Protein backbone atom coordinates (compact mmCIF):
# COMPACT_ATOMS: atom_id res chain seq x y z
CA UNK A 1 0.00 0.00 0.00
CA UNK A 2 1.30 3.46 -0.84
CA UNK A 3 1.73 6.21 1.72
CA UNK A 4 -0.76 9.10 1.70
CA UNK A 5 0.38 12.53 0.60
CA UNK A 6 1.58 14.87 3.35
CA UNK A 7 -1.52 16.59 4.83
CA UNK A 8 0.20 19.99 4.60
CA UNK A 9 0.29 19.75 0.81
CA UNK A 10 -1.85 22.20 -1.13
CA UNK A 11 -2.27 23.40 -4.69
CA UNK A 12 -0.24 26.57 -5.10
CA UNK A 13 -1.30 27.87 -8.51
CA UNK A 14 -2.99 27.06 -11.77
CA UNK A 15 -1.89 27.90 -15.31
CA UNK A 16 -4.61 28.47 -17.90
CA UNK A 17 -4.20 28.49 -21.66
CA UNK A 18 -6.02 31.52 -23.04
CA UNK A 19 -6.59 32.83 -26.55
CA UNK A 20 -6.20 36.56 -25.80
CA UNK A 21 -3.87 37.51 -22.97
CA UNK A 22 -5.08 41.11 -22.61
CA UNK A 23 -8.73 40.02 -22.40
CA UNK A 24 -7.89 37.29 -19.85
CA UNK A 25 -5.86 39.67 -17.67
CA UNK A 26 -8.67 42.23 -17.79
CA UNK A 27 -11.11 39.57 -16.53
CA UNK A 28 -8.99 38.13 -13.72
CA UNK A 29 -7.69 41.55 -12.62
CA UNK A 30 -10.64 43.88 -13.20
CA UNK A 31 -13.59 41.54 -12.63
CA UNK A 32 -12.26 39.07 -10.05
CA UNK A 33 -9.84 41.53 -8.43
CA UNK A 34 -6.52 39.66 -8.64
CA UNK A 35 -3.33 41.73 -8.76
CA UNK A 36 -1.02 41.35 -11.75
CA UNK A 37 2.41 40.46 -10.31
CA UNK A 38 4.51 39.71 -13.40
CA UNK A 39 4.38 39.44 -17.17
CA UNK A 40 6.42 37.66 -19.82
CA UNK A 41 5.93 39.97 -22.77
CA UNK A 42 2.65 39.40 -24.56
CA UNK A 43 2.65 35.64 -23.93
CA UNK A 44 2.10 35.18 -20.20
CA UNK A 45 0.88 37.03 -17.13
CA UNK A 46 0.82 36.08 -13.46
CA UNK A 47 -1.80 37.24 -10.94
CA UNK A 48 -2.24 36.80 -7.21
CA UNK A 49 -4.16 37.67 -4.10
CA UNK A 50 -2.29 39.17 -1.18
CA UNK A 51 1.15 39.56 -2.72
CA UNK A 52 1.94 35.87 -3.38
CA UNK A 53 4.08 35.43 -6.52
CA UNK A 54 1.08 34.00 -8.39
CA UNK A 55 -2.07 32.01 -7.89
CA UNK A 56 -3.08 32.17 -11.55
CA UNK A 57 -0.83 32.01 -14.59
CA UNK A 58 -2.33 32.94 -17.95
CA UNK A 59 -0.49 32.08 -21.15
CA UNK A 60 -0.88 31.95 -24.92
CA UNK A 61 2.12 29.66 -25.54
CA UNK A 62 -0.04 27.03 -27.27
CA UNK A 63 -3.38 28.78 -27.49
CA UNK A 64 -3.18 32.29 -28.95
CA UNK A 65 -6.31 32.88 -31.03
CA UNK A 66 -7.55 29.40 -30.13
CA UNK A 67 -11.02 28.23 -29.15
CA UNK A 68 -12.28 26.45 -26.04
CA UNK A 69 -12.30 22.64 -26.06
CA UNK A 70 -15.51 21.23 -27.52
CA UNK A 71 -18.17 19.73 -25.24
CA UNK A 72 -17.54 16.08 -24.51
CA UNK A 73 -13.74 16.46 -24.40
CA UNK A 74 -11.45 16.00 -21.44
CA UNK A 75 -9.66 18.81 -19.65
CA UNK A 76 -10.06 21.15 -16.73
CA UNK A 77 -13.62 21.31 -15.37
CA UNK A 78 -13.08 24.40 -13.24
CA UNK A 79 -10.63 26.33 -11.09
CA UNK A 80 -11.88 26.84 -7.54
CA UNK A 81 -11.06 30.16 -5.87
CA UNK A 82 -11.64 29.98 -2.11
CA UNK A 83 -12.61 33.13 -0.22
CA UNK A 84 -11.86 33.42 3.51
CA UNK A 85 -15.32 34.62 4.60
CA UNK A 86 -18.92 34.79 3.47
CA UNK A 87 -18.59 38.59 3.22
CA UNK A 88 -15.59 38.25 0.89
CA UNK A 89 -17.59 35.82 -1.27
CA UNK A 90 -20.48 38.31 -1.36
CA UNK A 91 -18.11 41.07 -2.52
CA UNK A 92 -16.79 38.78 -5.26
CA UNK A 93 -20.34 38.03 -6.40
CA UNK A 94 -21.14 41.74 -6.49
CA UNK A 95 -18.07 42.40 -8.71
CA UNK A 96 -19.12 39.63 -11.12
CA UNK A 97 -22.74 40.84 -11.27
CA UNK A 98 -21.68 44.48 -11.76
CA UNK A 99 -19.38 43.40 -14.62
CA UNK A 100 -22.33 41.66 -16.31
CA UNK A 101 -20.67 38.24 -16.25
CA UNK A 102 -23.34 35.52 -16.46
CA UNK A 103 -23.41 32.84 -13.79
CA UNK A 104 -23.69 29.20 -14.75
CA UNK A 105 -24.85 28.02 -11.32
CA UNK A 106 -24.77 28.34 -7.56
CA UNK A 107 -24.92 25.59 -4.94
CA UNK A 108 -24.91 25.07 -1.20
CA UNK A 109 -22.75 21.97 -0.81
CA UNK A 110 -23.22 21.61 2.94
CA UNK A 111 -19.49 22.02 3.52
CA UNK A 112 -19.20 25.07 1.28
CA UNK A 113 -21.18 27.65 -0.71
CA UNK A 114 -20.25 28.00 -4.37
CA UNK A 115 -20.91 30.23 -7.37
CA UNK A 116 -20.05 29.03 -10.88
CA UNK A 117 -19.15 31.04 -13.99
CA UNK A 118 -16.79 30.97 -16.98
CA UNK A 119 -13.92 33.23 -17.98
CA UNK A 120 -13.81 34.75 -21.49
CA UNK A 121 -12.07 31.61 -22.81
CA UNK A 122 -14.72 29.26 -21.43
CA UNK A 123 -12.62 28.04 -18.49
CA UNK A 124 -14.87 27.08 -15.60
CA UNK A 125 -14.49 29.03 -12.36
CA UNK A 126 -15.90 28.25 -8.92
CA UNK A 127 -15.95 31.09 -6.39
CA UNK A 128 -16.58 29.58 -2.95
CA UNK A 129 -16.12 29.73 0.77
CA UNK A 130 -15.76 26.77 3.10
CA UNK A 131 -18.04 26.62 6.08
CA UNK A 132 -16.35 26.06 9.44
CA UNK A 133 -15.99 22.29 10.07
CA UNK A 134 -18.50 22.41 12.92
CA UNK A 135 -21.16 23.54 10.41
CA UNK A 136 -20.52 20.78 7.85
CA UNK A 137 -23.48 18.57 6.98
CA UNK A 138 -23.03 15.13 8.50
CA UNK A 139 -24.53 11.74 7.81
CA UNK A 140 -25.77 9.23 10.40
CA UNK A 141 -22.25 7.80 10.85
CA UNK A 142 -20.79 11.28 11.55
CA UNK A 143 -18.93 11.60 8.25
CA UNK A 144 -19.40 14.78 6.25
CA UNK A 145 -21.96 14.79 3.45
CA UNK A 146 -21.66 16.74 0.23
CA UNK A 147 -24.92 18.29 -0.97
CA UNK A 148 -26.02 20.22 -4.02
CA UNK A 149 -28.80 22.44 -2.77
CA UNK A 150 -29.89 25.87 -4.07
CA UNK A 151 -27.73 28.78 -2.86
CA UNK A 152 -29.66 32.01 -2.27
CA UNK A 153 -27.49 34.62 -3.96
CA UNK A 154 -29.90 37.47 -3.21
CA UNK A 155 -29.51 36.72 0.51
CA UNK A 156 -25.74 36.65 0.10
CA UNK A 157 -25.71 40.05 -1.60
CA UNK A 158 -28.12 41.46 1.00
CA UNK A 159 -25.47 40.83 3.64
CA UNK A 160 -23.42 43.63 2.08
CA UNK A 161 -26.11 46.24 2.84
Question: How would you sum up this structure, described in words?
Answer:
- With 161 residues, the protein is of the alpha+beta class.
- The chain folds into two domains: 55 residues, 2,3-Dihydroxybiphenyl 1,2-Dioxygenase, domain 1 (Roll), CATH 3.10.180; 86 residues, 2,3-Dihydroxybiphenyl 1,2-Dioxygenase, domain 1 (Roll), CATH 3.10.180.
- It is built from three helices and nine strands, in the order βαββββαββββα.
- The strands form two sheets. Strands 5-8-7-6-9 form a five-stranded mixed beta sheet, covered by helices on one side. The chain has a four-stranded mixed beta sheet with strand order 1-4-3-2, covered by helices on one side.
- The protein is globular, with a radius of gyration of 17 Å.
- The model has no long low-confidence stretch (mean pLDDT 95).
Give a quick precis of the structure.
The protein is of the alpha+beta class. It has helices at residues 21-31, 86-98, 153-158, and strands at 14-17, 35-40, 44-48, 56-59, 79-82, 103-108, 112-118, 124-130, 149-150.
Amino acid sequence: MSENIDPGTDIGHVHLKVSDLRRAVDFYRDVLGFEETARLGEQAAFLSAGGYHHHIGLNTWESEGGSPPPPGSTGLFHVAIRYPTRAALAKALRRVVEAGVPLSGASDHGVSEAIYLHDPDGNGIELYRDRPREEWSKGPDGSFVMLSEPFDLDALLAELS
